[in-house]
Design a protein that fits this description.
single chain, about 55 residues
């Protein structure tokens, strides 16, 4: 897992969390990121279809 991908996913989840659930859940999302590292490459591969853009 590339560090850049992990940082991007972290920022994406954090922004989604702040807007949808609140900043209090950011720490929970960060924990889930480390827990779901095995699924991250699959998610990234799906996003590379065209929506993978900063």
């Amino acid at each position: 897992l590339a560090l850049g991908q992990l940082q991007y996913l972290g920022r994406w989840k954090t922004s989604c969390t702040c807007s949808c659930f609140g900043i209090n859940d950011v720490s929970t999302l960060r924990h889930q990121i480390y827990t779901d590292e095995r699924t991250v490459p699959q998610v990234m591969n799906q996003r590379q279809g065209g929506s993978y853009s900063l």
